[in-house]
Input
Amino acid sequence: MNADKPKKIGLIGYGMIGGAIAKAARDDGFAEVAFVHGLDQGEAAEALPEVPFLDELSAVAGQDVDLVVEAATADVVSAIALDVLKQRDMLTFTMTAFSNDDFREAVREQCRASNTRLYIPHGGILALDGINDGSTVIDEIKITTTKAPRNLGLEDLATEGVIYDGPTRAACDVFPRNVNVHACIALCGIGFDRTHSIIVADPETTKMAHVIEVKGDGLEWRIEIAATAGSGVTGVYTPVSGINTVKRIVSQDYDIVLA
Output
């Protein structure tokens, strides 16, 4: 590939994250958006009229791109990740799919067999690298998330208080679209059964807040993160972070790079 030619990316999902990445790639020129797949063609077609829209998810794996970027749902990841990874790298923002041990191991085996990579973005989680690097000496991780009921997908918008308290694995089953922060920390840290999740509904909050408490051999961290809530399940910082993750993956510049 010509080193001066932008690498090609494909997008699964055109919501808050996918739309932000597409716009930044076009405006900044760090990648060419080769296709979009999503539930609603309208918004993507209006913003990217020159980009093909794939109606069928099954068509994604056969597209000639350097990186497939998923920002959709756990069901989508489960359905398409193995086929994509047979041929090319993938970046996924939906971590709850990996609470399934068999699926997670199948992804690892596919990456080894095909010499491909599944990239995990840090998203809105500051210090994820430290949790990953220290996973062998960490004994406890507890994550407390506070969101408005509508951002938790609850029908009763007056719901208040703790609505879940237990292992992260079960939280992924109950809230597959709302605990990707928890799932990502579990995946990169000490696992889905040893990581403890607490979900709090607060009708008055306008933020998505996470308190991450980590204890281990010679270490104790308390990390507090908050971002203004977007229109759905994503805080406003995550798309900004996602854009720069994609930039790092597809970068062809030789420079000082965060690793």
Summary: The mean pLDDT is 93. The first strand starts at residue 7 and ends at 12.
